[in-house]
Peptidase S1 domain-containing protein (Lottia gigantea), 378 residues
Amino acid sequence: MGKVSIEECEKTNSVNCSEGTDIHANLVLCDYFGGVCAEGCEMFYWHRFNITLCPTEGHLCCTPDHISESVDDTPTVQEENTSIDEPDSPMADEPASSMPHPDHLQEQCGFTSPIHRRKRVVGGSIANRNAWPWIVALRSVLGAHTCSGAVIASRWILTAAHCFRHFPQAEYWRVRTGEYDLLEYEDSERDITVSDIFIFPEYTANDPTFNRENQTLYNRYAHDLALMKLNEDSGVVPICLSGRTQAERVGGEDASGFSMASIEAKGDCWVAGWGTTLNHTDDQVLRQVHADVVDHEECSQMWNTSLQEDMICFGDGVRGPCAGDSGGPLACKMDGRFYVTGIVSWGAENCNMNGHPSVFARVISHMDWIETTVADRS
């Protein structure tokens, strides 16, 4: 008996999908990888995440009879009892002292290298490396980039709830820091396992009983926010959170002389991610776009609906995020620091509908839940 290693991350297997993965929730993973669940077989598939590929206990994901060493893309066959250890993540062997202390990183929240505007690329520009250190790539059990997220504390990622529609289990995910080009592995990249996923309690669209077909985008993405807790420190500079009391958040000013409302209205706001571009370029490097936050009432009129107060709009329907950018942060700069103002949620299907801004989950409306969850679970 032998086993075939299924690589979690194939750089050429990157997909863009605005609602997590584009498969059914009841998918048997063994079927997806081309195997057959059976009680015993000579050779079987094994996943790097060490997760079960078959729903029945004791069954293996057996390789089909036609697999042979003559096929170029056939995974390497391992003999029985051969140890297949998951490769160490970059930096995993370094002593803990080499990692920046979380408290020091938290003090540096929102600071980044200068942003250089480059040649326009479909409503945005190619980002410089390390321009957005807090942005992470979320990779699912299927081995592809699925969503983005933002580091808000050493072990906490803020992202969109709809990313977990098909795979709500923490063990089915890896968070990749240091990502820049989805098609090339670099030493700066580091994959981190996830211990818990927390969905905002009022978000119900992931419920199997939720009828998505009869819902508007407005209802489908209401309260679209989630938190991921990592099993180890991310080691990167986080983006800043508000950190103020609810009364101050609604409009009061703090000692620094600005409120979150003023950040939304006057901040220097950007979105970055690996989503689809209108000209479908072959490269998949991190891109960024600069635009304005749209007035809430004006955005509601543009979408011909009444947006909830916990939604915030950005861009003009052409310049903005697209499929694959879900869960990424709307980063607005005030007094030299970037604050996470929104999380990419929904927008026009083809990302090219002028007059229909992209819609984000408004972070300030969920701060009590974010702070409580992080404090209670840390």
User: Anything to note?
Assistant: The chain has one domain: 102-377. The chain has a mean pLDDT of 74. The first strand starts at residue 2 and ends at 6. The two ends are 43 Å apart (CA to CA).
